[in-house]
Amino acid sequence: MLGIDVLEADRFTALSGKKIGLLTHPAGVNRRGQSTIDVLRRAPNVRLVALFAPEHGLDGNGKAGDNIPDTIDPRTGLPVYSLHGKTRKPTKAMLKGLDALVIDLQDIGVRSYTFVSAMRYTMEACFENGVEVIVLDRPNPLGGLKVDGPPMDPEWLSYVGAFRVPYVHGLTIGELARLAKEAPGVLAVSEKIRTRGQLTVVPMRGWRRAMRWPDTGLRWVATSPYVQDYAAVVGYAMTGLGTELGGFTHGIGRQHPFRGLGFKGRTADQIIKELNALRLPGLNFVKVTVPSADGRLLTGVYVDVTDYDAWRPTALSFHLMRLACKWSTVNPFTIAGTDRQNMFNKLTGSTAWWQALAREGARIDVAAFLRNWDERNQVYREQSHKYWLYP
Prior knowledge:
With 391 residues, this protein is of the alpha/beta class. The chain contains 13 helices and 11 strands. The strands form 2 sheets. It has a 7-stranded mixed β-sheet.
């Protein structure tokens, strides 16, 4: 049972008599696939008066990074305040008159996916304005045991990296909310405001940390245009960083987003040969051919996860960066514009990696970085247990 299901089973007690706003998107549905908007509109003694939308908008169709304007929801007539438009943080005017703001967002377990950033900024605004935050919890589709990738250096904190957690963080969105409320220095508010702020997390029932999305029995609803299914969720963690800059592309035509790989001037066989030589645990690389929109045949490399337990989600991305340097006449990371470099670093979060990559290019010791990050993440694994809601 998702947080919204538990809330309904408890007769909406946490919302009783309150005037509320709701931050959600198309994946904000109950276990029967009904929109949380509709569930709360028909809830007894609850007044839903405003909607808030994250990146990609309330309908989920906006392109990554695009600013979305405020609007009126044509179906409900409710105002929709965009938190990916003129502001990333709810304003005092947006929150005026609200007793509580409910958050029901499906995260994908990866630091740079901005729904957790929307939650953090919303918590800050609500705490500053005396509005309660109620988070309806949802599964981490990668499970609650995978922790991997570079921690976040403080200088790179941004909207695409709002928490100083490993790239694959292993927490549910409700557990991240608890971390933000309870750990000093996570929220950009004073200690007095943080401790006074009201947070209620409505936990799921029946979820366990070892469960991945297919184990839940729930239907996946697209969380963004390129994350239409669970395969793309796994791929995002695995190739998202490696295809951000350097020359590797994800997808084969419009198919297999984040699971297909290509590199200009290299054949699928050449890519597979290089990647097989890395002997990365839990991965297999397969040449696939798909039809394009105009009827041509496109060939690329599909990344298959054959052993989930052995799989290290982010390792492939960093090897792709090294390989991009090997296959380019000039280090592609050093010749990119300042804006591209800054965005890359905000996503990756590691100054040391960038400096070594820019200096050494194809000679960079990827394995040494992976070991270092894993050692540092062990501390996070132990400390994050205090925020766990599930065994």
